[in-house]
Amino acid sequence: HAHLDHTGYLPLLVKNGFRGKIYGTHLTVELCKILLLDSGHLQEEEANRANKHGYSKHKPAMPLYTRADAEALFPQLQAVSFHQDFNIGDLGFRFNRAGHILGAGSLIAKHQNTSIIFSGDLGRDTDPCVLPPEDNLGADYLVIESTYGDRLHEKIDSKESLRVVVNRVFERGGTVIIPAFAVGRTQTILYDIYILKQEGKIPNIPIFLDSPMAQDVTEIMLKNPTEHTLDKPTCIGISKMVRYVNTVDESKQIDNYQYPKIIISASGMATGG
């Protein structure tokens, strides 16, 4: 899938001479272009800060890769559909849905009578927006992400937690600020807010999405109805509900809105943006 812990080194790989095709599902390819351009920009900004404040051991500090380096790999991106068989040499491949984020897939590789499934993160059947992971039956070998492989998560009703916070902040006339990852988390939060509004469980206050990258990802999601679980009225409702903030000046102008509101903004770990 397109998250940077899976794709973030691709620009440097290509910069260092890789000339082969880079396969991914259609939405993974679309999201990669957005995330890698942003990553290159952030790498450049970080190098500039390091040179300005002198905290790097490198003189001068250089970005791992640039926005131009990220764009240079685009011609090598090869989009394939889910369940579409394709071959590289005598190996056959197919992507099944992994359910983690939009476009996420588990890759089935076959050679003669042997099959291997490689999967990154797997999603949950209960995700409100992303189509669930598909069963991958009959493989001889499985290689899979194991970040949470040794623990059980506490069951948390995130929508109910959101309802409580929004109402508490609304009652004191404040602003709810939600740090959210641009891919996946933002779209789920928008959906939860929309449903809570439809059910009359939170007041009808403005929703600002202050992250250009999250806006781009949300638009990709809403324009690809077969790639998520939301129906058309819900997509239209979310589009009408959210207000996009596109510039620094517009972001600053939100401060002038002296009424209760919700602001969703990257980064998800509140370390930038």
Walkthrough of the structure:
It is built from nine helices and eleven strands. Helix content is 36%, strand content 19%. The chain has three domains: 1-79, no CATH class; 81-153, no CATH class; 158-265, Rossmann fold (3-Layer(aba) Sandwich). α3 runs antiparallel to α7 (212-222). β5 (105-111) and β6 (114-119) form a beta hairpin. The longest helix has 28 residues, at 26-53. The protein has helices spanning 4-7, 10-15, 26-53, 67-72, 158-171, 185-198, 212-222, 232-241, 248-253, and strands at residues 22-25, 77-80, 86-88, 91-97, 105-111, 114-119, 141-144, 175-179, 207-209, 242-244, 261-265. Strands 3-4-5-6-7 form a five-stranded mixed sheet, with no helix packed on it. Strands 8-11-9-10 form a four-stranded parallel sheet. The protein is of the alpha/beta class and 273 residues long.
Secondary-structure blueprint:
Elements: H1 4-7, H2 10-15, E1 22-25, H3 26-53, H4 67-72, E2 77-80, E3 86-88, E4 91-97, E5 105-111, E6 114-119, E7 141-144, H5 158-171, E8 175-179, H6 185-198, E9 207-209, H7 212-222, H8 232-241, E10 242-244, H9 248-253, E11 261-265
Parallel strand pairs: 1-2, 6-7, 8-11, 9-10, 9-11
Antiparallel strand pairs: 3-4, 4-5, 5-6
